[in-house]
Amino acid sequence: MDRVLIAGISGAGKTTMARALERRLGLPRHELDALHHGPGWTKRPEFESDVDGFSSAPRWVTEDQYHSFLDDLLWERADTVVWLDLPRRTVMHRVVRRSLARAVSRKELWNGNRESVRDWVDPGHPIRWAWSQHERKRTTTLERIGRHPHLTVVRLRTAGQARRWLATVGAPGAAGRP
After folding, report:
1. CA of 133: how far to CAs of 21, 75, 125, in Å?
2. In this predicted structure, what is the pLDDT of residue 178?
3. Calpha distance 32→65 (Å, rounded)
4. What is the pTM of this model?
5. Residues 152, 157, 161, CA angle at the centre, nearest 5°?
6. What is the pLDDT of residues 161-174, one digit of tens each?
7. Considering 9, 87, 135, 165, which has the largest number of Cβ atoms within 10 A of its Cβ?
């Protein structure tokens, strides 16, 4: 596992898994939200070139997002996809909890951006996105897997399975498969 893409819907734990793999495997981690969002939630003009640059390197871990800008670039360059295919109830609990914490704390996310409760009415907000796109994300992920047979795919269907799998990563003699 040298070029790892973490797939899943908003709230599945992509960033958390990427951070864990960064620590366990010593992979450089690149957070796509941080590269994408400029001030005022606008797309940074350098986004695609930044992603092209890091994904040309021999080792990295990042989240699977922004297909409208990147198409399958990361899928073509990855060697492994860790798919957090968690139940809707799990991701909804997580994404609501995360959004509430962000709105209450007013913590800066990326480039001066902060989340607020009033953002929740936006159809693109992670809460609404996770609810409305859960099944569609599963379908498109399966399609991408079919288009990229060179990838090793680790499909994790529960939070417990993800924790158990992660505990084996980087361990001597571990295969890294569920």
Report:
1. 26, 20, 11
2. 44
3. 7
4. 0.89
5. 85
6. 999 999 999 755 44
7. 9
